[in-house]
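pasting input
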Amino acid sequence: MLLGRTANGLYWMNRYIERTENMARLVDAGLRMALTRTQSAQEEWKSVVLSAGTDHGFGAVHEHYTAEAVSDYLLRDKSNPSSAMSSIETARFNARMVRTALTRETWESINEGWMGLKRMLADPIDERELPQVLDEIKRATALIRGSFYGTMLRNEIFDFSQMGTYVERADNTARILDVKYYVLLPSVSWVGSTLDNYQWESILRSVSAHRSYRWVYEADYRPTNIADYLILNGRMPRSLTFCYRFLAEHLRFREEEYGERLPCHDTVEKTLAKLRVGSIKQIFDTGLHEFLTGFIHDNKRLGDEVATDFRFH
Amino acid sequence: MVAFDEMTPESSGLRNSYAAYDHWLKQQNPARLAEKMRDAERVFRKTGITFAVYGEEEAAERLIPFDIVPRIISGAEWRRLTQGIEQRVQALNAFLDDIYHRQEILRAGRIPKHLIANNDAFLPEMIGVRPPAGVYTHIIGTDIVRTGENDFFVLEDNARTPSGVSYMLENRETMMQLFPELFQKISVRPVENYPQLLRQSLAAVRPENLKTAPTIAVLTPGSYNSAYYEHAFLADQMGVELVEGHDLRVVDGHVAMRTTQGYKQIDVLYRRVDDDYLDPLSFRQDSALGIPGIMDVYRAGNITIANAPGTGIADDKAIYSYMPEIIEFYTGRKAILQNIQTWRCSEPDSLKYVLENIKDLVIKEVHGSGGYGMLVGPTSTKKECEDFAKKVAARPSNYIAQPTLSLSTCPILTEAGLAPRHVDLRPYVLVSDRIQIVPGGLTRVALKKGSLVVNSSQGGGTKDTWVLDD
């Protein structure tokens, strides 16, 4: 027995924990890009803001896409509801609301993570400290995830939490790809210039996959492989397929236990079916951008249906 | 006037109940104790045991300061206290039943009728309603103060939604973590089973026509409420749902909560919201917190609300002054625990006395709580007293006055070592088909030297309260 409001709180708590970490990862990728390619730094920082889905809000506060402005906006600006600080705060607010559903370890890791980030992000970040700040954010969210996986019972509470994590993560990966889809298109980058190499590495870095890529594929970056890795590879923990396999699984647990099949069950399977293509080539043939836009739309729809079907409100 | 110190009174030296603790304390290194004090704060901060103070936005979540020196009560003292509290709680429930039915006590002329009729805490909706097992106030926190070896007084009967019990439990938990060796040396009666007792107690007063095990829930105004931590804590410890008003609605004559699988019936609601916010159809229509129609379900006997709506009439400060009469009327015996002398400003002679002696008195609003809207004459400036006197003169019936009691003290640990501070005590009482009092309670302590205000909202702290198993 789980209150709809509690399921909602768990779902959003986990979306925001995931988002906190994603913000750190995006800034990290931007930082690396800007360090290696100083001429086009503005462009790179802009794509970071776009990937974070916060371009509109950013424009209202800042004029130029500089390292300082972007990292401030994405990490500590409270007027940005998706900044790492806002996200961890929203995550904690939700955790506090659903506290009775969490283990003491999980609650404390969130509460301590929030206290730590609040302290660390109280004042503007000194550029020299940025790498350390990013590490600290990633460590805080890793600790939360560790406590959560290590102590939570695998029941409906766990399922709704995981749904939040994977819907957010899938959205994030799809957006990162969509912002840079053009550098993956064969027509433009078949040759693989140095510039493209940087761009490709940046994509992988923003999902923390620049090293593991080489374990799976050959050493060279190839756009089709990168797209394959982030979309179709079922072992890559931030790929769309990985996220959707788990989403489908957690939803199936609900279907079996509650004994009720709901619209979200059909949606998750339809989306998963679209990911079950023979090769990445098929996706390129029908259009990578169109595929990603469609995916982002389907993913949002799944989130909405989960909220309705399980009476979140 | 020298206050009675519960550890080492001036007259007699170290009291027996503190002997074992004192022996242990003398062997401790002061630096280690100071370190333990900091540990305690870390524990509280980490677990998020905070409370919100209204009107202090920047300090939205604050810790209640915790002192590591326990307040110790002997077994014999406790037995006397519990007898007095039981008697009082019985009288309170009998009074509520009477007030909402035949009103014998009014007919007998023991309390003036206008005190009930013109009182906002009296709910006409409750007339003729008899809750399961005849219990109106299920959870009570009786505030007790002490002035001497044998002088205990009841300061307030919190019969609506007393809070603070989570601090009693967390304080003990923290003390056991910090000083495990102490609990091996000294036999302290346990308080840890309070949540189980509360759950059993709530289950025992389930609707009479319910044949199955009851579904119990705790109703909170939400996470912005100052006592939210406690609401979540109790629900968690009891293993019941923590619900908000918008989780609930009336379905087929029952109150039900919205779950991921649809609406599920609730049988017993431990509500931590005020009467006003219970049912917008019956009470405050502008309230978004309540459950429309819950009063109809209640009157039909399909849900137990603890504490019952309308119990506030029993702990109103104007009614308080009649408690000796109330106890005698319903139990046929004199009150075991004394009341504090109270002047009702609504009475002309009393008002005159109060206005003339305001600098020696404590003045309280009849409906106030939490240390707000009160004046402590002796520690206030002349101007503060004069300003308050004007308020009292303008609305006399809104105020009562009491003598400034010399509350007992207990030592707290300060940077300069042990120092006495004034304390009070709130034991928690559970009423169902029986009355149970957990051996212990919440000791609140005024941390400022000489201060008599122990409320957490006014800078008070807490201590673990030990009842010795002797």
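fyi The interface with chain B takes residues 1-5, 7, 93, 96-97, 99-100, 104, 107-108, 111-112, 115, 156, 160, 254, 258, 260, 310-311 of chain A (CB under 8 Å).
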